[in-house]
Amino acid sequence: QASLAKERHTAQLRCGAVPSAVRVCFPTRALTMLSSLRSLPRGAPRGLWIRTFASNKIPAPPMTYISGEEMSWYTMKIIREKWVEPFIDTSQWEYFDLSCKHRDDSDDKVLHEAVASGFRLGAIFKEPTITPSAEQVKQFGLKKPRGSPNGAMRRGWNGITISRDTIHIPGIKLGFDQPVFFERHAVGGEYGAGWKSVGKGRVLSTFFPDDIKEPPIIIDGRQVEDNESAVVVYDNPLDNVEDLAHIFFARCLEANIVPYVVTKKTVFKWQEGFWQKMKKVFDEHYKEKYLACGLLKKTGGDLQHLISDAATMQIIRWTGGGFGMACHNYDGDMLTDEVAQVHRSPGFITSNLIGKSADGSLIKEFEASHGTVADLWHAHLRGEDTSMNPLGMVVALLGAMEHAAMLNPANKADIFRWTGHCKEAMYTAFRTGKGTRDLSGPTGLTTEQFVEAVFEDLNKRMASGEMPVPYEVPAKEELAPSRKLRRGFEHVDEEGIKAFFEKYDTDANGAISFEEFVDMTLELGIAPMKKDPEAVKHHEARVASHASTEMPA
C-alpha cells in the first residue's frame, strides 16, 4: 500500500504502449495492472484476448467481459484477482477493452467485436464506460468523440428491454422494503431521434411503405412560426413489445410482485399501442396465474395502467416495494432514476439489457447502474484512501456468470455454489461493520480492505464444500444506515432542512405530530394513496385532467 501510494504521488499520468496499438493512460504501477487485462496475444483480433491455463478451478462457461475505466475498472480488477481467479477458470471468457482511448485507437473496431462476441455467446458483463465530452476528447488526445456504446449493443443484440431492479442486502434497510422491478423498452423514443434546427417554414412528415405500390402516408404537416425551432422525428417500434411483456410478467410472477404498465396515453395517443399489446399478453397468458397467487387483490382483479405522472408519485409513496412497472424507453430512464434515489443510490440498482438471438434464446448483458466514479479515481491517483462500494458491479458479474451457466449447464451447480457464496460473503461484510463507508460510516473499510475482507470469508466458505445458505433476518434486526453517509451529503444545506422542518412544526415544539405530518404530505403531494382501482383511477383522472390543460390540442 505504501509503495503504491508513493508511486501515485510521484508519477504523472502518461501513455504506456501495449501490443496491437492499444495505448492507455495510467500511472506506472497501473500499467503493470493493465498487462493482465489489456494486453493482446499476437495474432488475436484487436480488443479481444482469451486467457488459457490448466487448473483444478471451476471451469466457467463462455462469456463476454467488457472492461471500462477509472475507479470502477480498478475495483473490478482487484475483485477478479481476489474473488474470481482463485476459484474460477475464466479461460473461455472473451475480454474487450472499451476504454475511450482504446475505442479511439481501434476506430471503434473493438466495440463491433465486443457486440459480435456478445451476440455469439449470449452472456455479457460490462463495466461502466466513459462517453467522452468535448473536454475529455482533448484531455485524452482522442481523434474524435465516440458515442455511447449502448446504442450499438441494443441494436446488435436485438434489445427488447432494460431490466432495472432494486438490490437488497438481507438485514440492512436501504429504501424499498421489498423488491421493485422495472422494464424499460430498450428501443425507440427520443434516443434515436433525428432532428434539425430550422427557421420559419413548413414541416411535412411522410411515410413511404416498402411496397412501392402502396401510396405514401402523410404523418404530420405543420407551419413553423418561430425564427428558431428544433424539429424532431422519432419512432417507437412495437414488434418486440410482446417479448417485453412475457419477460416482465414472468419475472414479476416469479418474485410475487404486482405489475403495472406505465404510459401517458391519455395525452400521447400514439402510446396506446404499447398498453394494448401488454394487456393482450397479460390476459392470454398470465391473468389466471396472477389471480391464483392473489397478486391482483388490490388492483381490482386486473392489470392496472398508470399514467407516468401518477407513477412518479407512487414510486415515492409505495416504499414498501413489491411492485413492478413496464414503460417506454424515456419514461423508464426517468422513473428508474427516481427509484434509485428512493433506494439510496444508483449503486443499489441493477441494469440488465435483454435481447434475443436468431434461435429465440435470450441474450443478457449485465452492468451496474452507476458510472465510472471519476472522483474516487482521481482521489486514488492522488494516493488518498478510497471506499468504493462495488455491490452493483458484483451483482451484475454474478448475474452474467449465472446466465452463462444456464446457457452452458455443464458446471452449473459449481458456478452457482461460487456465486451464492460470493454474494453471501459480501452481504455479511456489510452486516458486520466491514462494509464500505457509504453504509458503514467513517469506520468503514477502504476499497482494498473491503475486497480483502470479503475474500477471507469467501475462501472459508468455498473450502467448506457446502452449498450457500441465504441469510434469514431475525425479527427486528434490520439495520438502516443513515442517509448522511451517502457521498455528496456535504453539499446538503442543513440550515435549509432546519427551516423546512420548522415550517411544518407549527407549534414549534421541536417535533412533528401526526396531524402536522398529514398536512405536510398533503401539501407536498406525497400522501400514500389507497391501492384499490377506484382510488388509482380517480388519481389518474385528476392528473390527466391537469396535464391536458398544459398540452396543446
A few lines on this structure:
Helices cover 42% and strands 17% of the residues.
Q: Spans with pLDDT under 50 lasting ≥5 residues?
A: 1-46, 48-54, 546-553
Mean pLDDT equals: 86
Number of helices: 19
Report how far apart the termini are. 65 Å
Q: Main sheet, how many strands, which sense, barrel?
A: 10 strands, mixed
- Alpha-beta classification: alpha/beta
Beta-strand content bin? 15-25%
**Rg, alpha carbons:** 25 Å
Q: How would you sum up the global shape?
A: globular
Helix content: 40-55%
Count the beta strands. Answer: 18
Strand order of the largest sheet: 6-4-7-18-17-8-9-16-14-15
Describe this structure in words.
- By secondary structure, the protein is of the alpha/beta class.
- Helices cover 42% and strands 17% of the residues.
- It contains 19 helices and 18 strands.
- The protein has helices at residues 2-10, 28-38, 70-84, 100-105, 109-121, 134-140, 150-156, 241-254, 272-293, 308-317, 329-342, 374-381, 391-407, 412-431, 437-440, 447-464, 494-504, 514-524, 533-548; strands at 14-18, 22-26, 58-59, 63-67, 88-89, 93-97, 123-126, 161-165, 180-185, 194-198, 201-207, 217-224, 229-233, 258-263, 304-307, 323-327, 350-356, 362-368.
- It has a 10-stranded mixed β-sheet, sandwiched between helices.
- A hairpin with a 5-residue loop joins strand 17 and strand 18 (362-368).
- Helix 3 packs across helix 12 and helix 10 runs parallel beside helix 11 (329-342).
- The longest helix has 22 residues, at 272-293.
